[in-house]
Amino acid sequence: MTMNGARSLLRTLVDHDVDVCFANPGTSEMHFVAALDDEPRMRAVLGLFEGVVTGAADGYARMTGRPAATLLHLGPGLGNGIANLHNARRAHVPMINIVGDHATYHQALDAPLQSDIETLAANVSGWVRRSGSTDALARDTADAVVAARTPPGEIATLILPADVSWGEGGQTVARQPFDRPLAPDLATIEAAAKILCSGEPSAILVGNDIMRDELSLALLDAVAASTGSKVLAEVFPTRIRRGAGIAAADRLAYLAEFAAMQLDGLRHLILLGAQSPVTFFAYPGKASDLVPDGCDVHVVTDVREDGPEAVEALADAVGVTVADARLAPSSRSDRPTGELTGAALAAAVSATLPEDAIVVDEAQTGGIWASPATAGCPPHDWLTLTGGSIGFGMPCATGAAVACPDRPVINLQADGSAMYTAQALWTQAREGLDVTTVIFANRSYAILNMELSRVGVESPGPIAKSMLDLTGPELDFVALARGMGVPAVRPEDADSFTAALERAAAEPGPHLIEAVIPSGF
Amino acid sequence: MTMNGARSLLRTLVDHDVDVCFANPGTSEMHFVAALDDEPRMRAVLGLFEGVVTGAADGYARMTGRPAATLLHLGPGLGNGIANLHNARRAHVPMINIVGDHATYHQALDAPLQSDIETLAANVSGWVRRSGSTDALARDTADAVVAARTPPGEIATLILPADVSWGEGGQTVARQPFDRPLAPDLATIEAAAKILCSGEPSAILVGNDIMRDELSLALLDAVAASTGSKVLAEVFPTRIRRGAGIAAADRLAYLAEFAAMQLDGLRHLILLGAQSPVTFFAYPGKASDLVPDGCDVHVVTDVREDGPEAVEALADAVGVTVADARLAPSSRSDRPTGELTGAALAAAVSATLPEDAIVVDEAQTGGIWASPATAGCPPHDWLTLTGGSIGFGMPCATGAAVACPDRPVINLQADGSAMYTAQALWTQAREGLDVTTVIFANRSYAILNMELSRVGVESPGPIAKSMLDLTGPELDFVALARGMGVPAVRPEDADSFTAALERAAAEPGPHLIEAVIPSGF
Questions:
Q1: Fewest beta carbons within 10 Å, which of A102, B40, B305, B407?
Q2: What is the reported pLDDT for B371?
Q3: Which chain A residues touch B447 with a CB distance below 8 Å?
C-alpha cells in the first residue's frame, strides 16, 4: 500500500502510544488533517489558539505520563505555544510538537510566513529535528517519541515540511523501546540516610515523580518521623498526590520570607528529584539563594533517576516502612456562609471536592487558602504552574480532562491569568469535558501589587497602580464563558457559590463559576 | 539628581520621540511600572496578553512611522508576542521591545522563569541587546531607538535585567540622529524607465513607503498610463492609501491562480520596494515562483531606499507629472438590503465608510469583497496581514486608534482569527478607543476549507472537516465583547447591519458588530 508522509507519521505516532493530538492547523498542515480520517486511533482535539494546544498537551502528559502530539502552524504558531511549552519544559513532561513548515523548495523564497523555526523550537525543546524526506518521516517520528519519553520526559519538536507530509513513499517502522529512568546511586542514598539519622537538623526536598506516588510520600514521611527531619515539596510541583490517607509533603512557599522560615536552622538539605531552592524572582537587597548559611545541600537524585526507587532504598537504609508514616486525617471545611473571599472559596472547595478530583491551580494570590483547606479532602491530584508563565490553568485543565474522562477536573483560576488563554473554554465545550472553572475575580493583578512593594516600591503613583488594575472595564467571565459555549454563573455569596460548585459537579460537561472577591489578603 | 535605570530608560525613550508604551508587565518590570509616574510624557497602555501588546505597537507604527515601546515579561512574555512581532517584522515597522529579565546575578540560578531570551528575540528582531549596567542603560536605549528607526524600520529588542532597572546611577544621553532612507540609484531608475518606454509588456510591483504616499501612487499611475504598463501593489501591504481622488494600485491576489492572471504575458517586472512575487504557500504540482516564464525581474529599489524619491525620479525619466494620473472616481455602494453575506457587508462598509478612516483588514475569505467595494470611498488607509500570522487585526486596530485618536478605525475581522487576540477589546474599552470591529462570522476556518482542496485533498473525511468547523459550539462574539466591556450587537439583515455601522461611527468609543454570514464564496 502506498502511503503519504502524513499517514506514515500518524501511524507511527499511534503505534508508539501517542493517540491524542491537540491541534491548531493551517494550510501547511492540511495533509496531516486529511490523514486523520485514515487513522481513527488518533483523537484530534481542536484548539482556537496555540497556547491552548500546548498547555493541554502539558496537562494530558501530567496525568498520563505519556506524550500527546501538538499540531502547530509554522514559526508563529509555535511562537504562540511557547509560553505553555516553557511551563511544560519546567514540568519535565513528555510532548511531541509537530510544526508544519513550508515545502522544502519553498523555504528559500522568503514567503510571508517564512521564519526561523529551529531557534524557536530549541528554546523549549530537548530534541529538535527537521524531517528531510517522506521515506525518513516514520523513523524521525519514532525518534521524536523516544526522545520525548526519555526520563523524566522532554519536549521533542519535529518540523514537518509540507512536501514531506504530502509526498508518497511513507514507511512504517517497528515500535521502538523507550528508556527507563536511571537507577539511583545506592551509596549516595546510604550517605543521605546516615545524615538523616545523625540527629542534625535536616530536610528532604522532593520533586518530580516522587510527588505523585502515594507509596513514596508515605515512605518519606516514615523516614522523617523516624529521624526527626522533615519533608518538603518543591514550590510548584508538576503533580502532587494528596488528601486523606496520604502522607503530606509541605510545599515550599512561593514567598521567600516564608520559605526562609521553612528552611531556617537546617544543617542539611537532601534533594530527591528537586532543584536546590532559589527565590522565584530577585529582590533588591535580598538573597536569591534560599539555602541558609551553614546548610549543606546533598543531591541524591536528579529528575532523570527513578525517584520512587530511590525513596524505597532510603527507607530501607533508615529502616522504616509505610507503617511508620503519618497519613493525613480525613477532614473537610464546613460549608462557608456570608461574603465571598479567597478563604470562603477555599472552604467551599474543601467542603465539596469530589473523590479523585484533579485540581489545576492557577489561582495565584486569591487561591493561597485552597491548598491548606483541602489537605484532608478525599484523595486527589494537584497540578501547579511549574514554569511561572501565566495562562497555564485553563489549557492544562482541558488536557487533564481529555486524559482522564472519568475524573472531575477543578480549575482554580485567577482572573488576570485566565485572560491569556481563555479560548480553552471553547475546547472544553466542544469536547464536553468535565471541567469546573472557578474564577477568582479580584479584578487586579493582585500578585503584582504585592510584588511592587516587595521589590522596594513603597508608594506607587496612580499610573503604576492603574497598570495593575483590571476594573476599567470589569471583565465579565460569565459573558466570556457563554460566548464560548460554557454555562456560567456568578454567585453573590458563599452559600450560593458552594451550591454552584455542587451543581457543576453533578452535571456533565464544563462549567464556569465567577467569584468576585476582594483583592489582597 | 540621582535616577534609577528605569527612569533613565523612560526619559531616554521619550527624548527620542518614543512616548507610547504598550505593556503587559510582571514582577521583573515593576520598577519600570513605578517609574511611569515620574515620566508623564510616556503614555502606558495596558494589554491583557502580549500578542495584543506587540500587535498594537505594530498598528501604532504603521500609522505614525514612529516606534512605540512594548513592555514584556521575560522569555514567555516575549514568546506570547512573537506572532504579531512576526507580522511587524514583515511590515518593516519600527518597534522597541523592552523585555524584563531576572536580575543579572539571579540568572545562573535557573529559577522557574529562566529561559534563553536572546534566541527568541533574535527570531523577530533586527537588533538585540542585553543591557549590562544601569549607567549604560540610557545609551543602550538610545541605540535601540536608532536601530528601530533604521529605514524602513526594524524591531529592536532591549533585554532589561531587573537590577539594571532598579539600580541607581541612571544617565541621560543627548538625542541621537536617525538614519534617513538610502538614496535610490538614478542609473537603475533610468534603465527601468527605458524598459517601461520600450512598449514591451511591463508591470511595476510596489511596496513599502510608496503605498502610503498619494503623490507616489499618482506618479506611478501616470507612468503606467503613459507607457502602457500597469502598477501592482504587493499582496499584503503595511498600509495603503486609497479612495476617491487617489490613484489606485491593484493588489496582487492572494490566490496564485488569480495572481498568475495578473502577471500573465509580462516581459518585465519592475520592483519598487517590493519582493519578487511568490505564492503564500507551496501547493503540490504548482510553481511557487509567480514570475512568468520569459519575464525579467528588475530590482529598482528595496525597502531601505527612499521609495517616493525613486518614484519621482522614475516619473521624471518617463516625462510624466501627476496631471497624467487617473485618479479613482468617487463612488459608494448602495445600501445593501436582504441577507447578510460577505458581499452585503462590503456594500454596507462602502456605503458608510467615514472620511479618513483607518481600515484594519483581517477578514480573510469573508472579506474579499470589501477592498474592491471601497475603492471609491472617501480617502482612507488600509492595513493588512503582512506576515500571515493570524490574530493581527484587533491588536493592530487598537494601536492604530492610539496613534490616531481623531480618526475612526474599522476592523474587518474574521471570526477564527479574532479568537487569537480578542483580549484587545478590553484595551479598546479601557482607553475609549474609536474602533468598530466587524466580525465576519462564517463559523469556520473557511480559508482552510479552500486550502484543503488547493493542496490536493479532494474529498476530505468527516474528521478533517470537523477540524475546520467552528460551530460546535458557536462562538458568540456579542457575549465575548460585552465580557470585555465593549458594546456589541448582532444584526440579522443587511439593513440593520448598515444601521449598526452608522451608530457605531456616531458614538465615541469601541463597538463590535457580529455579522453571521455563510461560509465559502
A1: B40
A2: 95
A3: 27
Q: Structural domain tally of chain B?
A: 3
Q: Using CA atoms, how far apart are residues A414 and A478, in angstroms rounded to an integer?
A: 14
- Give the percent of chain B with pLDDT over 90: 94
Do the chains contact at A389 and B33, CB–CB below 8 Å?
Answer: no
Residues B496, B443 within the same domain: yes
User: Quick check: B153 and B209 in contact, CB under 8 A?
Assistant: no
Residues B190 and B158 in one domain: no
- B79 and A83 within 8 Å at the Cβ level: the answer is yes
Does residue A98 belong to any structural domain of this protein? yes
- Predicted confidence (pLDDT) at residue B521 exceeds the cutoff of 60: no
State yes or no: pLDDT of B300 exceeds 90.
Answer: yes
Average pLDDT along chain A: 96
Q: Average model confidence (pLDDT) for chain B? A: 96
Claim to verify: residue B221 and residue B264 sit in the same structural domain: yes
Task: Say what the pTM is.
Answer: 0.97
Tell me which residue of A514, A507, A500, A497 sits closest to A432, measured CA to CA: A507
Report the gap between the CA of A145 and the closest CA in chain B (Å): 24
Among B143, B156, B155, which residue's Cα sits nearest to residue B90?
A: B155
3-state secondary structure of A419: coil
pLDDT band at B446 (very low <50, low <70, confident <90, very high): confident
Mutation site, B37, B97, B117, interface A, largest A CB count within 10 A = B37
Average pLDDT on A315-324 reads: 98
Question: Residue B34 in contact with residue A457, Cβ under 8 Å?
Answer: yes
Which residues does chain B have within 8 Å of residue A477's beta carbon, measured at their own beta carbons? Answer: 483
CA distance B349 to chain A (A): 25
Are B461 and A289 in contact (CB < 8 Å)? no
Considering the domain boundaries, does residue B521 fall inside one? Answer: no
d(C-alpha B410, C-alpha A253), whole Å: 48
Cross-chain residue pair B48–A426, CB shorter than 8 Å: no
- Taking alpha carbons only, the member of A328, A154, A171 closest to residue A246 is A328
Instruction: Residue B417: give the domain boundaries.
Output: 342-516
pLDDT band at residue B271 using 50, 70 and 90 as cut-offs = very high
- Identify whether residues B426 and B280 lie together within a single domain: no
Residue of chain B with shortest Cα separation from A119: B119
Contact B416 A48 (CB under 8 A): yes
In a domain, B176, yes or no: no
Q: What is the pLDDT of residues A48-86, one digit of tens each?
A: 999 999 999 999 999 999 999 999 999 999 999 999 999
Percent helix / strand / coil, chain B, rounded to 5 = 40, 20, 40
Say whether both B387 and B482 belong to one domain: yes
Same domain, B312 and B352: no
Q: Are A48 and B478 in contact (CB < 8 Å)?
A: no
Residue in chain A lying closest to B423 (CA)? A419
Among B71, B80, B164, B235, the residue to mutate for chain A (most A Cβ within 10 A): B80
Quick one: cell of B501? 455601522
Nearest to B463 among A44, A49, A423 (CB): A44
Same domain, A466 and A406: yes
CATH at B77: 3.40.50.970
Residues of B in contact with A19 (CB under 8 A): none
